[in-house]
From TrEMBL:
Annotated organism of origin: Pseudoruegeria aquimaris
One GO cellular component, as annotated: ATP-binding cassette (ABC) transporter complex, substrate-binding subunit-containing
Pfam families: ABC_tran, TOBE_2
The protein's name in its UniProt record: sn-glycerol-3-phosphate import ATP-binding protein UgpC
Known EC number: 3.6.3.20
ABC transporter domain segment(s): 4-241
Keyword Transcription attributed: no
The organism's taxonomic lineage, starting at the top: Bacteria, Pseudomonadati, Pseudomonadota, Alphaproteobacteria, Rhodobacterales
Amino acid sequence: MAKITLSQLRHSYMPAPKGPEDYALKQIDLDWQDGGAYALLGPSGCGKSTLLNIISGLLVPSEGRILFDGRDVTDLPPDQRNIAQVFQFPVIYDTMTVRENLAFPLKNRGVAPAHIEARVAEIAEMLEVTEMLDQRAAGLSPDNKQKISMGRGLVRDDVNVVMFDEPLTVIDPHLKWKLRSKLKELHQRVNATMIYVTHDQTEALTFADQVVVMQLGEVVQIGTPVELFERPAHTFVGHFIGSPGMNVLPCEVRDGGAFFMGRNVPLEGSITQSGTRNEIGIRPEFVTLSESGIPGAVRKVADLGHNAVVEAVAADGTRISAVLHGGDLPAQGETVHMQFAPEQTRFYADGWLASEARGAA
Ligand SMILES: Nc1ncnc2c1ncn2[C@@H]1O[C@H](COP(=O)(O)OP(=O)(O)OP(=O)(O)O)[C@@H](O)[C@H]1O
């Protein structure tokens, strides 16, 4: 396995790109540590596949370098990069048995039969497919086919990285959670560098130790699931992660404080910089209803049993959601007053986090 470095990477599909808007990847500097479990998360079109194809060697970047353990591989073709890939749709040979399918990547590289046998048995046991080893792949269900496809990606122990590209797309929703947690467990056992590409936050947060969030060809934040939830570096991350996403309120900056509709909103810490667009960010989980606070008319109430989501609209039209645990729920149309937990209330200047964390020097 290897540490993968992306240095000053930019890519445009245009022959003569002019401005940043012509780049599918704007500027990426990133280290993927040896043995790490990473997710590459972002909406459709943000550049995930472009980045994946650059790492695998299917695409040569317009600018920048890719290093595996410090060795420049930018101009190496895919077959010389020693990468395993698992795609959206299973890549297996229907006419072969499960055992033959799992053995194939090893056989292809001339690995000794005894080692192949042991490794196939080990991977089959991890994937819980041992009893299927002598079945023909053609007869397997789609999720078992995808499991075998994953097994083929994991079976070699000499690869630099295993990359998963939306691997759960074909899996039935009720089986997804099973395979998701299986993959996490596999990472812990195989200890390989893994990059998991997805637009699904649940998949990313379940699998990864570090999540790389992309938007419009840029990395907006790299962090643990907890960091992305607690201190989104950008309002985009706040919206994209969480359900419902973070509330973002337009505000004015006066005397070092943030004001929403003329009302001072206490923040976690000092504002470090203001911008042309100033906003307050607060997760619905840290909004409570009380006697006083920001008034809003209740627009929607969703009682989910273990909690309820109340969405209210302030007089200026800003929507604010609160996640409530127990207590009486307001009725639609009722006026409620909302309080924000100050230590969880962030400030964003032109989209970027610009308040000091509580306790920060
Ligand atoms: N072969 C191509 N030629 C021209 N433009 C492309 C090509 N492939 C991708 N793009 C553009 O580059 C940008 C990034 O696309 P990319 O496929 O990398 O995003 P993505 O995050 O993987 O999206 P998805 O999840 O839909 O696959 C998009 O604007 C897309 O239209």
